[in-house]
Design goal:
- There is one protein chain.
- By secondary structure, this protein is an all-alpha fold.
- Among the domains are: 1-128, Tetratricopeptide repeat domain (Serine Threonine Protein Phosphatase 5, Tetratricopeptide repeat), CATH 1.25.40; 311-401, Tetratricopeptide repeat domain (Serine Threonine Protein Phosphatase 5, Tetratricopeptide repeat), CATH 1.25.40.
- It contains 21 helices and no strands.
- It has helices at 2-32, 36-49, 54-79, 82-95, 100-112, 116-129, 134-156, 160-173, 178-190, 194-207, 212-224, 228-241, 246-258, 262-275, 280-292, 296-309, 314-326, 330-343, 348-359, 366-377, 383-394.
- The longest helix is centred in the N-terminal third of the chain and has 31 residues, at 2-32.
- The chain is rod-shaped, with a radius of gyration of 38 Å.
């Protein structure tokens, strides 16, 4: 009987030891997969079956120490002690290379330090271990948003280089974020890098072909770069995508002016005005176009509306004075020219039209008109025209017949 009991006890002990060893092996497997919590649970279960095994106890103590480091590191992140957190997570990673949570925690600490490049690096490392780790996916997206918003803020504050760097970081995180390419285009254009601006707008549009604002800004960049045909195509695509894009209609009209297609230009300006009736810039451009068609009555009418809507636009007053002079309405021309001069005293065009109005085809004051032309002459762009008019007033017989 004693032998039977001994055999049963021995069998039970051997079974327990075998089961404990199996649990320990499962613990090591969990550890190799980065699951520190499960590894600890398995070792504890192994100890429950084999309480005398010193190896199991030492491993439990080691894993418990790593677990405490994880807890303390996470607490450090919450408390804003980011360097302490990084050190703690680093110790865990050194012992458990596939510890997804440790990589995620490290990324969070770097994000807290606003080192977004390092943060994304560690988020991506966690995903290389577990591609379905949702917290890292969400965090990467949030970092991209933070960087994008920070870049926009830098741009608005005039910190262009910083903004550019952040937009590039955003694209390093998400190369499909067309808005970042677009903003880089806006920034490069502001910096005078038209070729780079065009490239970035094109990159944005290669991702989102229906991005009307992208087409419009691409057209502006082409126009400024002297590429009228591509500018025209870009503006046409803008209004094809969005018939209510009044700025694009106006810009297309300006292209038609450059191409000397004045009737088409007027149609574009009228379309813009139909969409936005108080669009002073379209009335201004339409007034200039009517002047090119020598329809000065309609030119004056359009420009009068322009100055009503934009009374601080000196060029509208200047062109209005020009139209009134062409209509021989000298008093109205004087009033408009004086408004232009009040807004910009060193602009020769205002003084020139005031001189024309003052002379009034020979019916006005020669000396006063010459004084105005002399002031126009101070503006290099108007010097030759002013000198011609001075000579014409002083020596009218030279210009008779």
């Amino acid at each position: 009987m004693k032998n039977i009991i001994f055999i049963l006890l021995l069998s039970t002990t051997i079974f327990a030891q075998t089961s404990a060893l199996s649990l320990y092996e499962e613990s090591q497997k969990a550890l190799s997969e980065g699951n520190l919590e499960l590894a600890g649970e398995k070792v504890k279960a192994a100890i429950d079956l084999d309480k005398t095994n010193d190896t199991f106890r030492k491993e439990f103590d080691r894993l418990n120490g790593l677990r405490n480091k994880m807890i303390n590191a996470n607490r450090s992140v919450q408390d804003g002690r980011f360097d302490d957190a990084i050190t703690g997570f680093s110790d865990v990673i050194a012992s458990v290379p596939n510890a997804v949570e440790a990589y995620y925690g490290t990324a969070k600490a770097y994000e807290g330090k606003k080192d977004f490049t390092s943060a994304v690096k560690y988020y991506k490392q966690s995903l290389s271990i577990d591609s379905n780790y949702k917290k890292s996916k969400i965090s990467i997206s949030n970092v991209a948003k933070k960087l994008y918003n920070s870049a926009n803020k830098d741009y608005k504050n005039g910190n262009l280089e910083s903004a550019l760097s952040k937009y590039e970081q955003v694209l390093g995180i998400n190369s499909r974020l067309y808005q970042a390419y677009f903003q880089m285009g806006v920034l490069q254009k502001k910096m005078g890098n038209l070729s780079l601006a065009i490239q970035n707008y094109q990159s944005a549009l290669s991702i989102k072909k229906t991005f009307d604002k992208g087409w419009y800004n691409l057209g502006l960049a082409y126009k400024e770069n002297g590429d009228i045909n591509n500018a025209k195509e870009s503006f046409e695509e803008t209004v094809r995508l969005n018939k209510k894009y009044y700025k694009a209609h106006k810009s297309l009209g300006e292209i038609f002016i450059d191409l000397e297609k004045y009737e088409n230009a007027i149609l574009s300006f009228k379309t813009a005005i139909n969409i936005k009736p108080n669009y002073g810039a379209a009335y201004h451009a339409m007034g200039i176009t009517y002047a090119k068609l020598e329809d000065y009555n309609r030119s004056a009418e359009s420009l009068t509306k322009a100055v009503d809507l934009q009374p601080k636009e000196f060029l509208s007053w200047f062109h209005l004075a020009e139209a009134h002079n062409k209509l021989n309405d000298c008093e109205a021309a004087k009033e408009a020219a004086l408004e232009a001069i009040d807004l910009k005293k060193n602009f020769g065009g205002g003084w020139f039209e005031l001189g024309i109005a003052e002379y009034c085809g020979g019916k006005g004051s020669k000396n006063t008109s010459i004084n105005h032309f002399e002031k126009a002459r101070n503006d290099r762009a108007w010097r030759k025209m002013a000198e011609y008019e001075i000579d014409r007033v002083r020596n009218p017989e030279k210009y008779e017949g």
